[in-house]
Amino acid sequence: MGDYILKENERIDDLDVNGFRIIQNPFCFCFGMDAVLLANFVRVNPKAKGLDIGTGTGVVPLILTAKNRGAHWTGLEVQPNMADMASRSVKLNDAEDKISIVEGDVKNVRELFEPGQFGVITSNPPYMKPNSGLQSGSETINISRAEIMATLEDVVSAASYLLKTSGTFAMVHRPSRLPEIMDILLKYRLEPKRMQLVQPTVDKEANLVLIECVKEAGKELRLLPTLIVYKENGDYTEELLSYYR
Predict the structure, then answer these.
(1) In a 3-state reduction of DSSP, which class is residue 106?
(2) Which residues pair with 46 in a beta bridge?
(3) ∠ at Cα 35 (208, 118), nearest 5°?
(4) 162, 120 contact by CB (below 8 A)
(5) What is the pLDDT of residues 177-203, one digit of tens each?
(6) Span 90-114, average pLDDT
(7) DSSP labels for 7-45?
(8) Residue 132: per-residue pLDDT
(9) For residue range 53-76, what is the model confidence (pLDDT) as tens digits?
(10) Cβ-count burial of 212 within 10 angstroms (0-12 exposed, 13-18 middle, 19+ buried)?
């Protein structure tokens, strides 16, 4: 397919995975490293049907499909312009049989899906509370960054409803909110099983945390080795580079 599928200000970026590409708009929210880390962190059964909550432009389902992880992925996105870009990215990669994009509100999942429909769910939710941090002139970017349309509890509640028993929920978030994250996960019977902190450099505090939970599982948490993003010279570490290869 050609550039004729693009709309104003949009571009096509290479995902560097099996030839897959993605449509993005710099005036909207473009995916970052956290989405790539999440896609590499989550464990996916080859036969699983997966859901990505707040999929944005569909980057997580696209990466996981490019790596042949999971039988089928659905991306749920509340913002029409982002859902439209995600849908066109699916077509761009001829992946309509592997990925479905659903425009809808996470707070209305009971109207959109049957309970226990998915074996794995991922989410890169908004990190910030409403009206906190720097505000963008773009409403789309603000909605992607802050809990304007949905809270952390909305996302976790939806994941619990949609997951099968023993299904997996994985997300990326900020370590500063870990106490709240743990409380909400346990409230909705999602037992944390694996956790990994991400530090920009070896001498700086972690600024991301990856968490994988299992619905209605026993209590046992593995803390994985911390992932360091940059070497002292500013280059990516070998582990980080391996995620992009």
Answers:
(1) helix
(2) none
(3) 110
(4) no
(5) 999 999 999 999 999 999 999 999 999
(6) 96
(7) -TT-EEEE-SSTT-EEEE-TTSPPP-HHHHHHHHHS---
(8) 59
(9) 999 999 999 999 999 999 999 999
(10) buried
